Automatic annotation (TrEMBL):
Signal peptide start and end residues: none
Lineage of the species this protein comes from: Eukaryota, Fungi, Dikarya, Basidiomycota, Agaricomycotina
MF annotations from Gene Ontology: chloride channel activity
Membrane spanning residue stretches: 41-60, 66-86, 394-415
GO cellular component, one term: plasma membrane
Region feature Disordered, mapped onto this chain: 202-235
Topology term for the membrane: Multi-pass membrane protein
Name of the molecule in the record: UPF0187-domain-containing protein
Organism: Rhizopogon vinicolor AM-OR11-026
UniProt KW keywords: Cell membrane, Ion transport, Membrane, Transmembrane, Transmembrane helix, Transport
Pfam families: Bestrophin_2
Compartments, as annotated in UniProt: Cell membrane
Alphabetized InterPro entries for the sequence: YneE/VCCN1/2-like
Length: 504
């Protein structure tokens, strides 16, 4: 619907920095092919072609002595098709559930932010100390404090979504360009263990240098309250805030809030480089080896990189939810918000944590290794037996037929393996960077770009034809102010006439 005029604050958002794009708008042929299973299972297809050609050569020189009946194709092919279908269906269910949970995060970020920005009063309603009325300067300072507080809470909602994205990718800590500015000021009250182990990335092992760091302590702020300081319970005086450990960029705690330099800040996305290990079946063997190695090292509390993983993991999104909960608790103490609003905030926060728990469940409940390995071995045996059974009917065409059949079966196996974990950097994974930066971030910033609109401003606009186009006559050209002069009876009469014409 076109608008008569657009606020200037919104136009500035259109020129903001572009969000990170995980895929190009104009993909090349290689980009398209890399999204298919062919880019992952080409080694096994080459091996199948070589194997089929060797069997055909033997049958050609021995007059078909290595040929067998095609009964196994019919019997085992049907069973294998059902098993692979079940494997792929299970992976698709995990993919769809992950997308639903991300929709739940976006929905509740919208609800929480809208409730805070619109329904939390812009100033405290508590009586000032001493019984005297607040001066204009004190009112201005109180409103500024409340505005800063509300905007900070809305920023924490964005930080929550960003932290969930990094957490699901195994990127530990807060040392990322899209997360660190949003949470670096938060004190580290809690040390919550992470369910998802951190990724073994060299970038995560870097530590911020001390060349360009500075500290910010709680006593660096003036201890004496300003002239606008209110009674206890409205805003906590800065002098009473205890010196607690603050979070550093790598997720650890310190009484010095060390601000890391630009070189130690990691990018918002760190996709792995393409290598032969990503191709199937190399990725399958690498996954088995990593799983066995990880289980062996868990007994001594060390991960694959030789680090003590139990002391290096932090559940950053869950910690952020605790700060959001503390804000709701502060609103209850101040008694400036009605109970239904508090209940809505608690419900939205609970839904955010519920989505995080569901995403953790998906990521920490993989398909059992025994099932995946058995499925892969059965598929390999079936495809290896195809040249023996196809020679009697297809002769040399057994080679391309075996390759095509292998591509069909192994393609589904590889597709199920890829979408089983939809939170990584694969081209077919969920575009979490788009969810966070193009949806949540832009919506939250657009929400806080303008003050809360007053219905008295837009409901009585001269352009508002609240009777609609069905009223007819000269009523269409009358403004709400004109109808206000006529009174309630004339408005009800006009509405009744419009309703009667609609029924006719």
């Amino acid at each position: 619907m076109p608008r008569a005029q657009t606020p200037q604050a919104y136009s500035s958002l259109n020129s903001s920095e572009p969000a990170l794009r995980t895929m190009d708008n104009s993909p090349t042929l290689w980009d398209i092919l890399s999204t298919t299973t062919l880019s992952r299972c080409w080694p096994v297809l080459i091996c199948t072609a070589i194997w089929s050609f060797a069997i055909c050569m033997l049958n050609h020189h021995t007059h078909g002595k290595f040929s067998i009946q095609s009964t196994l194709i019919t019997v085992f092919g049907t069973v294998l098709g059902f098993v692979i279908s079940f494997r792929t269906t299970s992976s698709i269910e995990r993919y769809n559930e992950g997308r639903k949970l991300w929709s739940q995060i976006m929905l509740n970020c919208r609800i929480f932010a809208r409730t805070v920005w619109f329904h939390v009063p812009g100033e405290s309603s508590q009586a000032p100390t001493g019984g005297h009325a607040m001066s204009d300067k004190e009112k201005e300072e109180d409103q500024a404090k409340t505005l800063i507080e509300k905007k900070t809470v809305v920023n924490l909602l964005e930080a929550y979504a960003v932290a969930v994205k990094h957490y699901l990718r195994g990127e530990d800590g807060i040392n990322y360009e899209d997360l660190h500015p949003l949470v670096s000021f938060l004190p580290s009250y809690y040390s919550l263990p992470a369910i998802i182990p951190p990724a073994n990335l060299p970038e995560l092992h870097r530590r911020p240098t001390n060349a360009s760091t500075h500290s910010r302590r709680s006593h660096d702020v003036p201890a004496s309250p300003g002239p606008g300081t209110r009674a206890a319970g409205t805003h906590i005086p800065l002098s009473t805030i205890p010196e607690v450990p603050l979070r550093t960029a790598n997720g650890s705690s310190t009484t010095d809030s060390t601000v890391c330099d630009e070189e130690s800040i990691l990018p918002s996305a760190m996709p792995p480089k393409n290598s032969w290990q990503a191709a199937f079946p190399f990725s399958f063997f690498l996954w088995i080896w990593t799983t066995i190695k990880k289980d062996a090292r868990k007994a001594v509390g060390v991960d694959g990189a030789g680090r003590d993983f139990r002391s290096n993991e932090n559940n950053v999104p869950l910690e952020i939810s605790l700060f959001l909960s503390s804000y709701i608790s502060a609103l209850q103490v101040r008694k400036i918000v009605e109970a239904p609003t508090i209940n809505l905030l608690y419900t939205s926060l609970n839904q955010l944590v519920d989505a995080l728990t569901g995403l953790e469940r998906i990521l920490t409940t993989p398909i059992p290794v025994s099932y995946s390995s058995h499925l892969w071995m059965v598929t390999l045996v079936y495809c290896s037996a195809l040249p023996f059974q196809l020679w009697s009917t297809l002769a040399w065409f057994s080679v391309p037929a075996s390759v095509i059949a292998s591509f069909i079966f192994f393609g589904f196996v590889v597709a199920g393996e890829e979408i089983e974990n939809p939170f990584g950097y694969d081209r077919n994974d969920l575009n979490m960077d788009h969810f966070v930066q193009n949806i949540i971030r832009k919506e939250l910033r657009a929400l806080t770009a303008t003050p809360t609109p007053d219905p008295a401003d837009w409901a009585f606009s001269p352009r508002n034809n609240f009777l609609g186009t069905l009223s007819g006559g000269t009523a269409q050209n009358e403004t709400p102010t004109d109808w206000l002069r006529k009174g309630k009876a004339e408005i009800l009469k006009a509405l009744q006439g419009a309703g009667s014409k609609e029924m006719v």
